[in-house]
Write a structure and sequence with these properties.
Blueprint: E1 4-9, H1 13-25, E2 28-33, H2 36-46, E3 50-54, H3 62-71, E4 80-85, H4 89-97, E5 102-106, H5 110-126, H6 139-151, E6 157-164, H7 166-173, H8 175-196, E7 202-206, E8 209-214, H9 219-234, H10 240-245, E9 247-250, E10 258-261, E11 264-272
Parallel strand pairs: 1-2, 1-3, 3-4, 4-5
Antiparallel strand pairs: 6-8, 6-11, 7-8, 9-10
The chain binds calcium ion.
C-alpha cells in the first residue's frame, strides 16, 4: 500500500512520541491526537486506515471514542486497535463488543504491535473490506451500509463519480501514478464531505467508481464542488506538454493513435433513496 495512514490517539506524551516515531520509520503517515475529541476530529479529517486508541484519555475515554467512531458513517469501518493496561480483561471484552478489531496491552512490545497493525490492515483488504488505493470501504461494506440505510428508512442522495480518462492516464503514466490520482480524488471527496456534508455521510469505492451517500441539504452543490476541486488540481499530475495540449496521446504515430483529454471526475448517477 503506497499510502498507509495511521492515527494514534494517546495522551501519554512519551508513548505517543514512541509510536509516532516508530511507525513513521515504517513509512506510515502518522497523525496524533492527545484527547478523545481531537481524535474523533482527526479520524474524520485524516482518513486513517487504522487507529491506535488508548483507553484512558483526559476528556472522554477510548470506549466512547470507539462508540462515536462506529456511529458515524465516515469512520464506521476504520479498523481500531485498543491500547489497554494489563489486568483490564473485562475492558478488553467491552472494547471488542464496541467494535474494536484488536487490543494490545501496555507496556507493549513494538514488534508485536507492528504485526498486529499489519495484520489488521491486511485483513481489511483481504476480506475485501477496504479498497487498497484509498483505504475506503469497498464491496461488502458498501453493500452493508446500503442495507443499513434501507433498514432505517433513511433518506439520502446516492452520488456516483468516476474518473474519465483514468485508463488512458494509467497507460501513459503507469499504475503508481494512476493510484496517486485515485487517492487525490478520494481525498478531495473526503474534504468536501467533511466540510459540507453531515457526520452520517458515507464514502466508498466500487471498482474505479466512488460511491457517496450524503444527507447534505444540496447534494448537487456538493458534487459540483468535488468536480471543480478535482479539475483545479489534476494538471499537477501531468507533464507540462500534456497539460499544454490538454491531454495524452495513446499509441502516438500509429494507426490507432488517439487523444484522451485530461482526467475529470464525472458524476455518472445520482439518486435519492
Ligand atoms: Ca492514557
Amino acid at each position: 500500500m503506497a499510502d498507509k495512514r495511521l492515527l494514534v490517539i494517546e495522551d501519554h506524551a512519551d508513548v505517543a512520541e514512541l509510536l509516532v516515531t516508530y511507525f513513521q520509520a515504517l513509512d506510515f503517515d502518522v497523525s496524533h491526537a492527545d484527547t478523545g475529541e481531537t481524535g474523533i476530529e482527526l479520524a474524520r479529517l485524516k482518513f486513517p486506515q487504522l487507529i491506535l486508541l488508548d483507553v484512558g484519555l483526559p476528556d472522554i475515554d477510548g470506549y466512547e471514542v470507539c462508540a462515536r467512531l462506529r456511529q458515524a458513517a465516515l469512520t464506521r469501518y476504520v479498523p481500531i486497535i485498543f491500547l489497554t493496561q494489563r489486568d483490564e480483561r473485562a475492558n478488553k471484552v467491552k472494547g471488542l463488543e464496541l467494535g474494536a478489531d484488536d487490543y494490545v496491552t501496555k507496556p507493549f512490545d513494538l514488534d508485536e504491535l507492528r504485526l498486529r497493525v499489519q495484520t489488521a490492515v491486511r485483513r481489511a483488504s483481504a476480506d475485501n473490506l477496504h479498497e487498497a488505493r484509498t483505504g475506503l470501504p469497498t464491496a461488502t461494506l458498501v453493500e452493508e451500509e446500503l442495507l443499513r440505510r434501507e433498514g432505517e428508512h433513511q433518506s439520502f442522495a446516492d452520488l456516483r463519480l468516476i474518473l474519465s480518462g483514468y485508463n488512458a492516464y494509467k497507460d501513459v503514466y503507469g499504475f503508481l501514478a494512476a493510484n496517486d490520482v485515485f487517492g487525490f480524488a478520494a481525498r478531495i471527496i473526503q474534504d468536501v464531505i467533511t466540510a459540507r456534508g453531515t457526520p452520517d455521510d458515507f464514502i466508498g469505492v466500487l471498482g474505479d467508481e466512488f460511491v457517496v451517500f450524503t444527507t447534505a441539504a444540496d447534494p448537487q452543490a456538493v458534487s459540483s464542488q468535488i468536480i471543480e476541486r478535482f479539475s483545479a488540481g489534476i494538471t499537477t499530475f501531468y507533464h507540462f506538454h500534456d497539460v499544454e495540449r490538454g491531454g495524452v496521446l495513446i499509441n502516438p504515430g500509429t494507426a490507432t493513435e488517439r487523444f484522451v483529454p485530461i482526467m475529470a471526475l464525472v458524476q455518472v448517477a445520482a439518486e435519492t433513496e
